[in-house]
Design brief:
By secondary structure, the chain is α/β, with parallel strands linked by helices. The protein is built from 3 helices and 8 strands. An 8-stranded mixed sheet has the order 1-8-7-3-4-5-6-2. The radius of gyration is 13 Å and the shape is globular.
């Protein structure tokens, strides 16, 4: 049985079905291996996990505009970027990087969502309609 949560669009787009990757730590895309999409930042909640094709769920972004944009660009050029991003707090650096790469991104999700979603769950995200569905 699916469950739908409301959210607010930051950038447009839809993802029909993708696996969730939930991180309690903010991610700096410069610290994600471009060739594999694996988080390489030591002591990070998502260390060793792949962001490729996932709906990445995290508190916010981290890092300067240059490293966020460069890291995300390198992932995109190798088809190793996340499918979409869900953040609890949108920071301008991450928003600018994601908008430049035209990835769907949302924030202000129902708080219950963050208690229910787990890594590996299948989700759909419709930033245009303002919904995330746990499938």
């Amino acid at each position: 049985m699916s469950k739908v949560f409301s959210c607010r669009q930051i950038t447009k787009g839809k993802v029909e079905c993708a696996e969730a990757l939930v991180s309690k730590d903010a991610i700096c895309f410069y610290l994600v291996e471009p060739e594999t999409g694996i988080v390489k930042e030591r002591n990070h909640d998502a260390f060793g996990k792949s962001v490729v094709g996932k709906i990445l769920i995290m508190p916010s972004g981290k890092g300067s505009s240059v490293v966020q944009l460069d890291g995300l660009y390198k992932l995109m050029m190798r088809n190793n970027a996340p499918a979409a991003i869900v953040v609890q707090e949108a920071d301008t650096v991450l928003v600018a990087a994601v908008a430049s790469m035209e990835l769907p991104m949302v924030h202000k999700v129902d708080s219950e969502f963050f208690h229910e979603v787990q890594t590996g769950m299948k989700l759909s995200l419709d930033a245009d309609a303002g919904t995330i569905t746990i499938l």
